[in-house]
Amino acid sequence: MNRFLAPLSKITEWEPPIPRQHLYAILMLAGFSVASVTLLPSPTELLANNPISVNSEDLSADAALADIPAADTEYVTVPDHELLGNEANLVDGLDDDTAPEPQWLDYQVKGDDNLSVIFNTLNLPAKTLHKLLEVDIQNSLIRLKINQKLSFLIDQNNVLQQLAIPLDGDRRVLFARQGDTYVSKIDGNVQQSSDDDSSDTVSKPVQVASTATPAKAVNAAEKETTKKPVAKPSRVIKGKIAGAFVVSARNSGLSNNQIHRIANMFRGRIDFRRDLHKGDGFRVLFDKPHNDDAKILAVTFTISGRDISAYRNADGQFYDESASNFSGGGTFMRYPIPSQRRVSSGFSPNRRNPVTGRVQPHNGTDFSVRVGTPVLATGDGVIVKATSHRDMGRYVVIRHGGKYTTVYMHMSKLLVKPGQKIKQGQKIGLSGNTGRSTGPHLHYEFRINNRPVNAMRVDLPMNEGMGGKAKRQFLAKVREYKRLMNQAG
Ligand SMILES: [Zn+2]
Predict the structure, then answer these.
(1) Which has the minimum average pLDDT: 31-40, 126-135, 275-284, 326-335?
(2) Contacts of residue 324, Cβ cutoff 8 Å, sequence gap at least 6
């Protein structure tokens, strides 16, 4: 009998194993996921410091209108392979064996944020947030502070692998995926930069494992973090373009992974399908003689006699010879249209089609503008698509530097061609009502690592100029790298 009673008495004594406030948050969030997420005001419970001021200038229209069926919008969900077609890969001939590595994505907490809005902005499911809250023993998620920087590691299947939240001092809370759930722990802040090429962090254990003896491996790993990037025996790989870039690159000794990295580095500057011709060449400088675990220090493409180079700086990012950021993607304008900013339908992963009742994510922001309004490129880049589609109408896809892509749909007239390089603010077409659209409007998407995110709320990359001492040190490194590459003949 006792055997049966014991559990019962336990139940009567049962108390929520988590703080009451926390429990409320979970319950509220559970409610959110049923209703529309963006319509609700920020629950103050979700922010510890809450001098919340709503930045109405660019956000309220978006949030308030997100789920009202607008007269001028579209209810289509175009699969990615239709959007980019054969341009989906940066270069021809690199297949699935080089699946992109997960990338860190930063988000700075804004004044009018709450957790649902943040997850919505980054296109992460509410379910993921619930799972994190369940293991948030430090309450770090419900005590977010304005301007706090959250770092998300998201894989190509849109699954959150890690989330890092800085605490006071050097510590941080790290949530890591384990099976179908998450575990959280506090650790010392391993200085982690989202813009550094992620393979450095991701592949480190592999490097260690592949080295001969454990003792040596640890040594090598330690050295790597302390010594100057110019390691003594460096290595230069040289290649000439003959046919497809991938073939030439493989023939020169570059691995698929390295080809991927280089293509990513130069996206927005070189169109690998169209710019490279027979006789053009490339040089890649590595910090080690062995290919497997070597770090790329510099890359130069010589195209029609002209050099385009990228050099690794101490921060792990690549810059050109004038010290402007190569992998950062440059700067972006928030809006793709000159003045009117009427958002008729906002970004919404949970948008419901008013006719079918089905959830149909809205991957972009719709601007209600009259036909013929100039559509502007929001950043420098290369046009990869400028064509027509039955749902998207006349549309343009621009590949920018770093991990960014922008998409513009339903235009009446296109003013650019695939392969064309364009500047921020340049007119790429005129808005319209083509494709499956219910009224004149521009549908605009902002994508990071090809995942659509909320263009109106996401942190846009900033062009941090390198100054003073840092620049002098970088330029000295550039000279050294150039010397090493030229030495190779
Ligand atoms: Zn739209």
Answers:
(1) 31-40
(2) 463, 465, 466
Ligand 1 center from residue 73 Cα (angstroms): 5
Q: Give residue 82's identity as a one-letter amino acid code.
A: E
User: Locate tokens 């910090």: which residue?
Assistant: 287
| 238 band by pLDDT with thresholds 50, 70 and 90 | very high
Read off φ and ψ for residue 184, nearest 5 degrees: -125, 150
Question: 361 C-alpha to center of ligand 1: Å?
Answer: 10
State the pLDDT at residue 47: 44
Distance 78 CA to ligand 1 centre (A): 11
Using a pLDDT cut of 90, give the percent of the chain over it: 38
Lowest mean pLDDT among 307-311, 474-478, 483-487: 483-487
CA of 201 to the centre of ligand 1 (A): 36
* Count of residues making up the chain: 489
Q: What is the mean pLDDT of residues 356-380?
A: 92
User: What is the reported pLDDT for 390?
Assistant: 92
How would you class 271 by CB atoms within 10 Å of its CB: exposed for 0-12, middle for 13-18, buried for 19 or more? buried
CA 405 to ligand 1 center in whole angstroms: 16
The winner for highest mean pLDDT among 64-68, 274-278, 461-465 is 274-278
Do 479 and 297 meet the contact criterion of CB atoms below 8 Å apart? no
Residue 62 in this model has a pLDDT that exceeds 70: no
* CA gap 339, 155 in Å, rounded: 36
In the prediction, which pLDDT does 18 show? 52
Q: Tell how far the Cα of 366 is from the centroid of ligand 1, in angstroms.
A: 5
| CA of 332 relative to ligand 1 center, distance in Å | 20
Compute, in angstroms, the gap from residue 436 CA to the centroid of ligand 1: 10
Cα dihedral sign, 443-458-132-48: negative
Q: Which residues contact 62 (CB under 8 A, 6 or more apart)?
A: 38, 343, 346, 347, 365, 454, 456, 457
pTM listed for this prediction: 0.69
For the chain, domains (ranges, CATH) are 1-190+332-463 (2.70.70.10), 230-330+468-487 (3.10.450.350)
Mean predicted confidence (pLDDT) in 290-318: 87
* Tokens standing for residue 141: 């998620």
What radius of gyration do the chain's Cα atoms show?
Answer: 25
Encode burial over 330-356: b for 16+ CB neighbours within 10 A, e otherwise.
bebeebbbeeebebbbbbbbbbbeeee
Chain center to CA of 360: 22
Query: What is the Cα–Cα distance from 163 to 174, expressed in whole angstroms?
Result: 6
Q: How far is the CA of 199 from the centre of ligand 1 (A)?
A: 34
Q: Quote the mean pLDDT of the chain.
A: 77
CA 364 to ligand 1 center in whole angstroms: 5
- Report the candidate in 313, 314, 331, 335 with the shortest Cα–Cα distance to residue 322: 313
